[in-house]
Specification:
The termini are far apart. Helix 1 packs across helix 2. This protein has a single domain, classed as Aminopeptidase, CATH 3.40.630. The N terminus is likely disordered. With 172 residues, the protein is α+β, with helices and mostly antiparallel strands. The chain is built from 4 helices and 7 strands, in the order βααβββαβαββ.
Length: 172
């Protein structure tokens, strides 16, 4: 189902000085594959020759990106940088009632350092200024992310076998 959305202006996000966002280019595919794998360490346990495993991961990553593009064609897709080093990605779609975090991944070396919290705080501020809710879906296996979201005021709105849908609403 195509989501009606418009673009979020990334310049509205007030990030700490060391963090930045840049557009994704075709040269970023190896980095996006590495991010995809970092969020799915169980894929490293598949008993395949390295070239086949690399191809599988790349294929799965491309399938995910194609799905995002078909569902949210106007979403902002950015690489997250810290001191000009690529450390993650964030995809966000906007409509008249909400911002939807489609994907937010940091390389494992940059997790649990307050970076995700800073990004979420920035999105919460934009949502508050625009009188929008902030929505996301979290994999049930990602307990640390869910704990972060709950600590930041998100509430579970629905559950599937694999994911929890969550929402944050500004309390003016």
């Amino acid at each position: 189902m195509l989501q009606t959305c418009h673009s979020l202006d990334p310049n509205k996000l007030k990030l700490p000085k060391q963090l930045g966002l840049r557009e994704i280019s075709k040269d970023d595919q190896p980095f996006l594959d590495a991010l995809f794998l970092s969020a799915r360490p169980h894929l490293q346990l598949i008993n395949l020759p390295e070239p086949l495993l690399t191809a599988l991961i790349s294929q799965q990553c491309m399938l995910q990106q194609n799905h995002y593009q078909s569902e949210w064609p106007n979403a902002e897709k950015r690489i997250i940088t810290q001191a000009r080093t690529d450390i993650g990605k964030i995809f966000v779609a906007a409509n008249n009632t909400s911002l939807h975090i489609i994907d937010l991944i940091l390389l494992s070396a940059y997790r649990n350092k307050g970076i995700g919290r800073s990004l979420l705080n920035s999105l919460q501020q934009v949502a508050k200024q625009e009188n929008l809710s902030l929505k996301l879906s979290v994999d049930k296996q990602n307990g640390l992310a869910k704990k972060l979201y709950l600590s930041m005021g998100f509430q579970v709105t629905s559950q599937t076998e694999t994911h929890d849908s969550m929402i944050w609403v500004s309390r003016h």
